[in-house]
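Researcher: Here's the sequence for the chain we discussed earlier.
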Amino acid sequence: MTTSVQTNMSALVALQNLNATNRDLVESQNRVSTGLSVGGAKDNAAVFAVAQNMRADIGAYAAVKTSLDRARSIADVALAAGESISNLLVEMRNKVTAALDPSLDAASRAAYNEDFAALRRQINSIINNANFDGANLINGSLAAGIQFLADAEGVNRLTLNVENMNFSGSIITLSTTQNINSVTNAQAALTALQASITNVNAALARFGSSSKMLEAHQTFVVKLSDTLTGGIGNLVDADLARESANLQALQVKQQLGSQALSIANAAPQALLSLFRG
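Model: Thanks. This is the structure I predict for it:
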């Protein structure tokens, strides 16, 4: 190799190696600071694209979970209301059974009738106030069931069916004017009550099944989202133990490269000895 002060090839090679080490050091530092081996498209375009698509799915599943949370809350409110109505119907039946006693005097029968009417008003209040986020499954305000998101594409739906528990309906056959002020009326009320209790309990069973279905699907969505999150981690997360060791090695390599460049830069100084007298 020609010795020259114009072109110092040893210094150029040392500088190239030092620059390469510096680039590797910056990359390793970025991985340690972000925890990611693929932080952007320039790191690995294919892996970054796959990870971004998976992140989009995770965001969509978060929306699905929110929709299912709302569905479960609506179902839980309807269940709580239905259970309260069932309990009140049982209590009404006790009043009706007592009112069937032909030996009751007018005052006692009036008292039973007033208790019966109070329970009926309480049921009506529950029906009208069983709302969550504007949705009421038991007051007949919804002609059909409510649909909720089931997948990240928003194509599939889960349906929560309504159960109209208004008086004089197919579930609660009692009328709003039903009374037990006579044995005859009490007998008619008993017939309606027996049917209503059976129907309400059947409706509660349907609500319970729907709520269980929503809970199971929500559990699946959470597990799927967690699996996708783990998959992204497998693709883009940095091995910090390895990066820590690599970072220390690169720091040593950087120091050695700087020393090598310094030595290469000093090499032309040897030419001065050739021109000394």
